[in-house]
């Protein structure tokens, strides 16, 4: 199953009251992005006594085919969140 199988995206209405993602006017592109956050230790070694955390905010374009949607070259790094010492 894919996100596009969900009734919400198929019935989501745009400002004109029409289905936002199925009908597009010439010259328009309607894109859907997912946003996700991942936290990690940049030093990758807690045993060495360095325990910091950094968050990365990523975006993926859900309009791409599922088999290439999450490839590194198709993921956009939207931001980095410096974390506290843990």
Automatic annotation (TrEMBL):
This is Uncharacterized protein. It comes from Polyporus arcularius HHB13444.
